[in-house]
């Protein structure tokens, strides 16, 4: 039986004459999971109290990118550089994380997904990378999405290091970054400027990365391996 991978969905508008709201996820996530022999299932943003039932129906949970996390969830007031937030999405996904842990279902967080996992377990964020300090690394790349533009160092004793080389490189589309890593989590990849590019839980099946393997997986096999590890091993 192929594992069922719940993908926490997003919402956006589409205008075709009238304007409609869409519940959706990126096909890149869908294809990454399918190529790893998993069955993707999109979970639209909904009521937090329904998270338990959704998690019962899936084997693992993927949290994708998009909105900034509401800074109030990690004890900060909104900074002028904060971008769009979605409180309904935060509330629903936080309950999905909570239920996944209660029900022993693994979690893979990508970009916002990593930042939300960190906040869910008591970590904090910089609302903009400029608040981290000066850096010579371009974390919002302008080259094509399937290009890997900055190096990362993968921590030797980590889940990532079981299938990625310690000297690796990634694409980069994030204007926020982790400040304090959540208790009982470890930073498992860093950019040369010290920005945290991956974390994992010490005692729970949770791994999370700042970059976007869904955009590079068809070009770089190691990027597909992130999905394969999640679907088959985590
Ligand atoms: Mn980066």
Quick recap:
This protein has 234 residues and is of the alpha/beta class.
Describe this structure in words.
One of its GO terms (biological process) is polyamine catabolic process. InterPro entries: Class_I_gatase-like, Peptidase_C26, PuuD-like. One of its GO terms (cellular component) is cytosol. GO terms for molecular function: gamma-glutamyl-gamma-aminobutyrate hydrolase activity. By secondary structure, the protein is of the alpha/beta class. It has a single domain, classed as Rossmann fold. Strand 5, helix 3 and strand 6 form a beta-alpha-beta unit. The longest helix has 16 residues. The protein is globular and about 40 Å long. The relative contact order is 0.17.
- The residue-averaged pLDDT reads 97
- The CATH architecture name reads 3-Layer(aba) Sandwich
CATH fold assignment: Rossmann fold
Largest sheet: 9 strands, mixed
Q: From the alpha-carbon coordinates, what is the Rg to the nearest angstrom?
A: 17 Å
Please state roughly what percent of the residues sit in beta strands, choosing from under 5%, 5-15%, 15-25%, 25-35%, 35-45% or over 45%.
Answer: 25-35%
GO molecular function: gamma-glutamyl-gamma-aminobutyrate hydrolase activity
Pfam family, one: Peptidase_C26
GO cellular component, one term: cytosol
InterPro entries: Class_I_gatase-like (IPR029062), Peptidase_C26 (IPR011697), PuuD-like (IPR044668)
């Amino acid at each position: 039986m192929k594992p069922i991978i719940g993908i926490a969905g997003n919402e956006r508008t589409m205008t075709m004459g009238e304007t409609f709201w869409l519940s959706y996820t990126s096909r890149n996530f869908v294809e990454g999971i399918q190529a790893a022999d998993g069955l993707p299932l999109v979970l639209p943003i909904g009521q937090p109290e329904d998270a338990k039932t959704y998690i019962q129906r899936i084997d693992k949970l993927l949290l994708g990118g998009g909105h900034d996390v509401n800074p109030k969830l990690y004890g900060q007031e909104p900074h002028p550089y904060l971008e769009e937030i979605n409180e309904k999405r935060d509330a629903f996904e936080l309950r999905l994380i909570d239920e996944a842990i209660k029900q022993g279902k693994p979690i893979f967080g990508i970009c916002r997904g990593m930042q939300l996992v960190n906040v869910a377990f008591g970590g904090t964020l910089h609302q903009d990378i400029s608040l981290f300090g000066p850096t010579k690394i371009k974390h919002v790349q302008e080259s094509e999405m399937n290009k890997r533009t900055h190096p990362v160092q993968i921590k030797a004793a980590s889940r990532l290091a079981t299938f990625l080389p310690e000297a690796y490189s990634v694409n980069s589309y994030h204007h926020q970054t982790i400040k304090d890593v959540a208790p009982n989590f470890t930073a498992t990849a860093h950019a040369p400027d010290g920005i945290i590019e991956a974390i994992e839980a010490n005692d729970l099946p949770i791994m999370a990365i700042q970059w976007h393997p869904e955009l590079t997986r068809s070009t770089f096999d190691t990027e597909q391996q992130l999905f394969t590890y999640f679907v088959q091993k985590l």
